[in-house]
Design brief:
Pfam families: Myosin_head. The chain is mainly alpha-helical and 180 residues long. The protein has helices spanning 9-15, 24-27, 39-52, 57-73, 93-102, 106-114, 131-168; strands spanning 78-80, 87-89, 115-120, 123-128. The protein has a two-stranded antiparallel ribbon with strand order 1-2. A two-stranded antiparallel sheet has the order 3-4.
Length: 180
């Protein structure tokens, strides 16, 4: 998903993908391409791998939607609304796309990204977040989605290989050197 041209036009539209340079999480390194690496070919190999380990089409699409949601989350912006640095989420295409890709309501997503709820006895207190707090919440949500998706994918691969392992004694090991 690094290069939006890697996915089919239908998939790009469904996931609302744009050029890699338009995503804050991708453009920070100023390295969007690698010489002699064909992102389109890599994407097709990924899709073949999903099919090889028998991940159903519906789950493949959901996984790609969550990856796209992570990309879009990095572009969520906030506007300061008072002198205490409290924020509201800017209600724009970005929030609409994140909510659609995550399968949630955009207004509820905006509340989650701009407030903190806690219980004090029987009372539920809602506190507005400051810009640094809201940014941390947004980035944490992206990391949680990405880490959960990674763990789910490893579990799917392991489950798929369990049957084959009895016959072939083959396995795949994954080392997550960037783990959380």
């Amino acid at each position: 998903m690094k290069n939006a041209s890697s996915a089919s036009p239908i998939l790009k539209e469904k996931l609302k993908l744009k050029a890699a340079s338009e995503y804050n999480y991708l453009n920070q390194s100023n390295c969007l391409t690698i010489d002699r690496i064909d992102d389109s070919q890599k994407f097709h190999k990924l899709m073949e791998a999903f099919n090889t380990v028998q991940i159903p089409q519906e789950y493949q699409e959901r996984a790609l939607a969550l990856l796209a949601a992570v990309l879009w989350l990095g572009n969520v912006s906030f506007e300061v609304i008072d002198n205490e640095n409290h924020v509201d989420v800017v209600a724009d295409e970005v929030v609409t796309n994140v909510a659609m890709l995550m399968g949630c309501d955009s207004k509820e997503l905006m509340v989650v990204l701009s407030t903190c709820k806690f219980q004090a006895g029987r009372d539920c207190i809602v506190k507005r977040l400051t810009l640094p707090q809201a940014t941390d919440i947004k980035d944490s949500l992206a990391k949680i989605i990405y880490a959960s998706l990674f763990n789910w994918l490893v579990e799917q691969i392991n489950t798929s290989l369990e049957v084959g392992k009895l016959r072939t004694r083959r396995s795949i090991s994954i080392l997550d050197i960037y783990g959380l």
